[in-house]
Amino acid sequence: MEMREFLKHKIFSIVSDVAEFENVDAYVIGGYVRDIFLNRPSKDIDIVVLGSGVDFARKVARRLRTTKVSYFKNFGTAQLKYHEWDVEFVGARKESYRLDSRKPIVENGTLEDDQNRRDFTINALALSLNKRNFGELIDPFDGVNDLKRGIIRTPLDPLTTFSDDPLRMLRAVRFATQLNFDIEPKTLDAIRQMNGRIKIVSAERITDELNKMMTSLRPSMGWFLLDETGLLEYILPEFVALKGVESRNGISHKDNFLHTLEVLDNLSAKSDNLWLRWAALLHDIAKPKTKRFIQGQGWTFHGHEFVGAKMIPSIFRKLKLPLNDKMKYVQKMVQLHLRPIVLSQDEVTDSAVRRLLFDAGDDIDDLMMLCEADITSKNDATVKRHLANFRIVRKKLKEIEEKDAIRNFQPPVSGELIMDTFGIKPCKEVGVIKTRIKDAILDGEIHNNFVEAYNLMLKVGREIGLTPIKIDQRYVVPENK
């Protein structure tokens, strides 16, 4: 493979010119080089120079006539944006670490020093941007062969690598998952030995790696590796609690850890929605808390969807996941994930479908996708029967939505109109009337329109002892009609 072919962009020729003029060695290193061999397009470029990365970036930016440069002098780095390219400049350095911190003690170094400090051999590849050997590959740790073999391996002793920066353990799992690579046995064993070091890594950095892992083609691979290495116990012990099968009187429940990861992969094959994937991972998270053995019934997990929904905020808070609409979305998916399944097992009534549409709103399609992914029986006939029933539910959802416009509906009669009609201030009676109208629409007693809701408002108001003081006769329909 001729490396020069991948260095034709203007950025590389400018860097090469500046390096020649300043008599400074410069190299492109890391992910951009790795992705050349993996045939993956990349717009992120890391440039290492033997000298000041900040000064070098300033000179390159001047040649490119761009002002989109951010300088981080404390870290000796600079970031330059040029069209769709993101370029980071850093001076070659060597690092040493203290046991209680991920922050390295940094000194100026050689290219060899810089490659030694890299996390994995596949990320230590460098291409020269110097005129004398432009495009030459520098691969001191046989990273190209590791790419060919699909191996994640540390450049130096893995125990030292992971002790220095424990986040690298999680990065090993993430890269293995993203690239469908194996973690080399010695490296994997070092993670097992060093897993407790992950405690000094911030939740934000951990979750950043988890999210990248979750967006891979088969995210279950990463969670299996986290469990195998013992990292999962430190990161998400609630998930570890799902493991195992318990038997009583010859009756066993399924392994909910394995089931959950099968659901996650099923869902991931259909959707790249990160938060729906998190919902798949957490949909049964409360089963250990709700597990009961009842004579004559076997194992039950009654209410696990409600208990699970209540667990979501604390899990999101611990992992530093966003405590906003994304969390509420996952909560909603966890709480509702059994509703379509119950519908698919019973006769599908219009009322039940309306209520599901009302509760799920615009997320109904995502909910149905999660429920279909939740079918993990080894019995093909059972799977086909459930999927056929879900098709009936989907058809009914579409019919009801087209007829009644329930999705995200607001009751046609507002609280302001109720107060104005009966001459009252905000009070519980307003809520009683609004709830009665909502339930009547969802149960099919009245249609979702203003006239029928207005007349029901008058009726319910009188029933609870209110007297209307202002009636719009245009909308009044005699009760016998």
Automatic annotation (TrEMBL):
Keyword Nucleotide-binding: yes
Every HD domain range: 259-350
Domain tRNA nucleotidyltransferase/poly(A) polymerase RNA and SrmB- binding: from-to ranges: 180-239
A molecular-function term among this protein's GO annotations: metal ion binding
Record Pfam families: HD, PolyA_pol, PolyA_pol_RNAbd
Gene3D superfamilies: Beta Polymerase, domain 2 (3.30.460.10), cca-adding enzyme, domain 2 (1.10.3090.10)
Domain Poly A polymerase head: from-to ranges: 26-153
This protein's UniProt keywords: ATP-binding, Magnesium, Metal-binding, Nucleotide-binding, Nucleotidyltransferase, RNA repair, RNA-binding, Transferase, tRNA processing
InterPro entries linked to this entry: HD/PDEase_dom, HD_domain, HDIG_dom, NT_sf, PolA_pol_head_dom, PolyA_RNA-bd, tRNA_CCA-adding_enzyme
Keyword Oxidoreductase set for record: no
Gene Ontology biological process terms in this record: RNA repair; tRNA processing
PANTHER family: MULTIFUNCTIONAL CCA PROTEIN
UniProt protein name: HD domain-containing protein
Organism: Tenuifilum thalassicum
Taxon lineage: Bacteria, Pseudomonadati, Bacteroidota, Bacteroidia, Bacteroidales
